[in-house]
Structures are given as structure tokens and as C-alpha cells.
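If I may wish for something, please walk me through the protein I am sending here so I can picture the backbone:
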Amino acid sequence: MENDDGISFLFYLQRIYPDEWSNFLERTNDTKDLKEKMDLVRQWVSYRGQTLFRTVRGMMYYKQALELQCFLDMAEDREIFDGYRPADIHHREDLPFAPLSKAVADMKFTYVVSCQVYGAQRKSGEPRDRSCYLNILNLLLKYPSLRVAYIDEREETVKGELEKVYYSVLVKGGDKLDEEIYRIKLPGRPTDIGEGKPENQNHAIIFTRGEALQTIDMNQDNYIEEAFKMRNLLEELQKSHRGDRKPTILGLREHIFTGSVSSLAWFMSNQETSFVTIGQRILASPLRVRFHYGHPDVFDRIFHLTRGGISKASKIINLSEDIFSGFNSTLRGGFVTHHEYIQVGKGRDVGMNQISQFEAKVANGNGEQTLSRDVYRLGRRFDFYRMLSFYFTTVGFYFSSMATVLTVYVFLYGRLYLVLSGLEKAVLEDPSIHQSKALEAALATQSVFQLGLLLVLPMVMEIGLERGFRTALGDFIIMQLQLASVFFTFQLGTKAHYFGRTILHGGAKYRATGRGFVVFHAKFADNYRFYSRSHFVKGLELMVLLIVYQVYGNAYRSSNLYLFVTFSMWFLVASWLFAPFIFNPSGFEWQKTVEDWTDWKRWMGNHGGIGIQPDRSWESWWDSEQEHLKYTDIRGRVLEILLACRFLIYQYGIVYHLNIAHHSKSVLVYGLSWLVMATVLVVLKMVSIGRRSFGTDFQLMFRILKGLLFLGFVSVMTVLFVVCGLTISDVFAGALGFLPTGWAFLLIGQACKPLLKYIGFWDSIKELARAYEYVMGILIFSPIVILSWFPFVSEFQTRLLFNQAFSRGLQISMILAGKKEKTS
């Protein structure tokens, strides 16, 4: 499988792990069978990605450890002194204790992989599906203790009619094929009534056995030395805590194995490591508010099977299904602990878009948690201090992130009102305002939160505890040089946007992030689609606010704290607008930039409609971005309209500062500004009608109409310049005032879509939206074009993104350029 540059996963991994590839070639040098060699190469690649093959191999270390421990428990001293090799047990049945060791291990350990689509892949004739089925079948044949649970869909005759019937099926490896063990009829398709991932767990949990159950994700790994510790961990279930309460969930730390190449992967690795170590350690004790945050926790199986299972699966509200099992366990008298003497490998998202989708999914999930009855019940039943700990370590973190962003808006809109109303000058003339150091200090403190510096503090503490504070300080400095603050400031916007939208409208949905490799270039259109509403629109709004304040304000710039606050806000704007491109491989390479521009123009110009995907047409994407308004109630629509009215403040304030107004404070000036807006909207309506009426057969008439409109515009502007005293500065100021008003019309129109469709004005709103998207796209793309002119910018960005790889001498530039070495 290759990307657009002709780079395959194998080529990429050969460059990332050159020593391991050389060792692999040395091991397989004697292999003559081509098919066997290809299978070995596929295994080598799979062991270095976030694949099911790697996860199954890691989990099967548990059985090897059990067999060895069983041998050591049953063998005499003589057998132990003779030595033990795991390979002997698998290949020589005549060894002492071999059958007994395997039998005991099989009784104590079973690994069930819940694969919903296994049945569909088994029946499919598509080469890709067939390959996936055969790969899973090979795993079943290779590991006898492995089981696969899947949902089987069949058509059966029920009461004389053909109906679809669903079964939950468990299979194991047999004689070159899979053998069915159990088949349980289901009342319907589980994913129709619940979220896919938790339902996938719930239908398979009945096939597990024993007293302990460990949940493992498909992007995890395990190590043989950790497998030996599992029986020590299981003994923790027998320990009593706080009286006679025994643990119901045993938390484990994780080893993040994906932080070795790119700076983004390193940031996420450090962030995740700090959470699964120092974070969860403190949550468990002394705060006692640790829950289940995903994998690889070990559950008291009997406790949870009799109390609703390990996942809640109601659609939307249980989007973050993992934490609800922790809520449920705590509400029903369970106890959660955390243990750091055992760990499991974990892969994290490594690309900017993958990370942002993951953060968006978690923010959506926390928004739904805020609205859930579980959080309400826990808040009511905890004591005051435990309730505060619970709040600030779950939904409170995201609420605080949203409040941080809202503080910036409140501050800037407040200053905008003071500037445009003329009150700021009077306020600044008051001598007492210059002694307001307390307010400035508070704003400066808020700016530290805004820059995301406190998000780095847990990482520094954890690195300091494990590897020394000198190393922690060095890593912190390197992270800042690699623009970690830009990354975390950008993610602050992701959290605030998706959490706020979920609170306002609901409708959170699962986002598949994928587990791809890191060096693939994301197109400008892809970045624009994903970040337009969450970052670009908000970043441009804050930029306009700052520009208006700089132009019309008379700030006391002698204050250092004030300058720091202003700098932090410009930093926020720059991060939200350009972080996706800074952290995008080959983001400033000229050829890629040209291709991105062509692709974006094609996407903007394509028509939408039924069956057209959002990544194919701007119209389809624009419709999908309003999907949350389809399901919101009247309260949500009213709030959307009220929030959109903030954009009307610009026009109201700026028109009185235009030179053409001649310092008049009459309401007539404001009325004339609305006449200008009405004229612009009428012209847009005429263009829309003309494009629709004349079509392709009357292009000459349409061009004549556009020419007449242009001549009319030039005539009006000439009269305004010559007669009314319009100036060039008034033109730019008018743009700052009227463009936000047009955006307010768009937002209000989207909230009132049914009404506008009824009166026939929706097409005009769509054309207005397309014009705004073009303007935003050009504003964001222009700096990228300018920087792409200079080759050293692309080289600097590559070094910034892949510093860890360069320090190991890897050929990242060759990978990015797509230049494969010639092989004989």
C-alpha cells in the first residue's frame, strides 16, 4: 500500500528502523520459499504498527508466562536445574509437565477478540475483506487460546417470511479453518440501539470466563516480562481497602511506544504518559476519583456482570463508554485502584488530524457526560471535597478550557465596546486606572492558561520523577523550541469548540481516528474542512477584534503585563490559524502547495447533492456542518441567533468613525449603513437568480448582467470618493465593519433554514457563504504560499517535525520527497 508519493509502509519502516530491518534480513537469509518470506515481511511490518497482529502477539505472552510459572510450580528441583525453554513445550509433547502446563494455562487464560465485521469479511468477495479474514484465520490457527467473537447476519424464514436474523458467534482455530463454539440469537442488530464500540464489547463478554477480565484495545502491545506480573496483580483483587471493600477495577499504567519519530508523537506520548502515571496515581489515592479511562484495566468480572457489564452503550450519551463503567462501579459500591509495577504497551495518534479528531471525540464525550444522570448522581453522593476532585478531573477540565476561551472573547468584546463608544479615552484619563495592577495580574495569569503552559507541568513532573529533573528541564526546553505551546494552544481550541457545541446542541458522534503513519501530507482542503469552524473562523474573528482595537484604541502600552496579555492573544490567533500547516509534513513545499490550491479550488467549485460526500464538494460539506442544527431544539436555535448578533457590534461602532460620516452621531448614519448592506444582498440575489436563470445557454446575458453591476459599483464608488469625501481608510474600515455583519446574516440564516427555504432566499445564503469561504481560504492560504517560495522554510519545518529522527540519522527527507532507492 502506497501513498500519493509512492511511499509504502515497508519503505517507511525500513528508513525508521534500519538496524532492525538489517537484523530481519540476516535472520531470514536462509528462507527460500517466496510466500513464506512475504509472510515474514508482513509480520515484521505488523509488529511495528498499531495492528491487531501486534496486539494478539503481546497478549499471548500471558499464556507463555503461565506455562512457565506452572512448570516452576510443579517441577522438582532436578527438572528446574535441567532448564526450561518455551519452544520445547510447543514442539515436544513428551517433555515432563508439558501437557499439564498447557492444560492449566488453557484453564486460566483465554483471549477473546471481538471483531464485529469478521462474519461479513468471511462472506465477502472483495480482495481486501478476504485478506482481512484470512489474516485473522491465520491468527486463530497460530494461537490455540485465541477466540474471535463476531455478529453474524443471516436471512432466515420466520413464519413464512424472509427476515434478517442476528447471532453472536464465538469461533476458534480448527483444522485449517475456524470452528464454531457458540451461537446465540440476538433480538436485533446491537449497533442499531447503541454505540458500536461498547456494543462490540457487550455482545462478546458472555463468551469470557474466570473471575478477572482485562480490556485491551487494538492499538496495544504487551511484553513477556510484564506478563509474569499478572498473577501478582490478580492478588490485588483479594486485598481489602478502607474496611472490607475489595477492588473492582485494577488500573494499570501504560508504556507509550509511538513517540520516537515526530515532535507531535512525542508531545502526545509525554502527555499520555503523564496521565497514565502521575495523573491516575493521584486520582486513585488520595483523591479516590479514578474511574475507567479505557484500556488496559482489569475488572472484577463477576461484580460487573451482575451490575450491567463493563460498558454502557446508549447512543450519543455514552459516546465515552469507558468512563461510564467506572461511574457505574463507583455508584454501586465498587472501588478503583491504580498499580504501577505492571504496564501494557499503548500506541497513540501521531498525526495532527488524528490527534485533533481524538481530542474532538473526547471533548464531545465529556459534553455528553455533563448532561448524563451518572455525573449528577456522583455529584450528589460525593462529599464536598471528593465532589470537587471529581469535577476538576472530568468534565470540569473541559468546562475550564471553554471558560478560558470565553474569557478572551469577553475581554476583547468589552474592549471593543469601550473603544468604539469613546469611553476608553475617558477611562484612561482617570489616574486611578493606572494603579489597576491586580486586574492586569489576573489577566496575565489567564494568559498562562491560554498558552497551554500548565498542560506541560504534569509531563515535566513525571519526567523529573522517573528520569531526573535535569532531563525534565531539557525536554521542556526542547518541547518549547519545537512549538509545543502552539500545539497545546491549538488543542485548547479543539476542546472548547466541541465541548461547547455538545453542551449547546448535543448530537455527539463517534470519530474514527485511524492509526496510520505520520509522514503523509494532509491536503489544504482536508485541513480546511476539519478546522474551519472550530479554529479558522474563531481565529479570524479574534484577529479582526485585535485589529480594530489596535486601530481605534488608545491603550496604555507602557504596561508590560498588558503587552503580555495582548501578545498572548495574537499568539492564540496565530496558533489557531496556522498550527495545522506548521505540523503538516511537506506543508511548505512549493509543489505540494500548488497541488493543494488546485485541489481546494476544485472542491469549492464542485456541486453537492444526494450521495456526494463532503470531501468531494463544498456544498455537501457546508450542509453537513449544519447537521447539529437539524436536531437541536428551539432553545438551541435562539441561542445561535443571539450569539450571532455579536457580529453586528462592529458595524454599529465603526460607521461612526468613518471620515464620510463627518463625526455625525445621528442615527441616520447607522440607517444608511444598513441601506448599503441591503444593496449588497440585493446584488447577490440578482447574481444568484442570473446564474440559475441564464444557465450555460445564455452565458452572454449573464456576463452582461455582471458587467452592468460592475459599472454600477464603479460609478457609486466614484461619486462617494468625489462628492461625499470617502477615503481609502474608510474602505478598509468599512470592510472591517460590514464583513462581520454578513457573517451574522449567514449564522442567523442557518438557524432559520426552514423559513428561508420557504421564502426562497436559501440559495442566496448559500452563495454568500461560498463567497465568505473563498475569502477565508485565500486569507489563510496566502501566508503558506509566501513561505513556500523559500526552500529553507520547508527544510526548517522538516527538522522541527522530525528532530528525534534526525538525531538518530534517519532519512526523513528522502521519505518526504518520495525518492526510493534503486534496488537491483
Residues 819-824 have pLDDT under 50 and may be disordered. The longest helix spans residues 524-552. The longest strand covers residues 146-158. The CA atoms of residues 145 and 525 lie 46 Å apart.
